[in-house]
Amino acid sequence: MFLAEINETVAWLYAAGEEASLEEYEVRVNKFKTQGEPIRTRYRFYEALPETKATYDALMVKVGVKMFSEEGENAESLINISQVTGE
Predict the structure, then answer these.
(1) Which of 20, 58, 77, 81 could form a disulfide with 24 if both were Cys (CB 3.0 to 4.6 A apart)?
(2) Average pLDDT, the chain
(3) Is 57 exposed, middle or buried (0-12, 13-18, 19+ CB in 10 A)?
């Protein structure tokens, strides 16, 4: 439905849109922003997720090594985060 509205608006731009008022353009732009911003936000979230998870995992390893080294434990006994999460 969103793509159909985009195609309709493109057709409008090249026809009646050439003579349209600024207010008409703003109404159409705001309509697309209302629908499109949540889509863009989800896309960017999922696009950044692998890097964010990798950063989190690396930080958890550093914290674990620091905890074990301060307690005098062998750092090799640290459980790999990926084993805990099942990945």
Answers:
(1) 20
(2) 80
(3) middle
Q: Can you give the residue ranges of every domain in the chain?
A: 2-85
Residues of the chain with pLDDT under 50: 74-76
Q: What is the 3-state secondary structure (H, E, C) of 38-83?
A: HHHHHHHHHHHHHHHHHHHHHHHHHHHHHHHHHCCCCHHHCCCHHH
| CB-CB contact of 60 with 81 (8 Å) | yes
> H-helix or E-strand containing 5?
helix 2-14
Entry pTM: 0.52
Query: Residue 84 class from Cβ within 10 Å (0-12 exposed, 13-18 middle, 19+ buried)?
Result: exposed
Per-residue pLDDT reduced to its tens digit, 27-44? 888 888 888 899 999 999
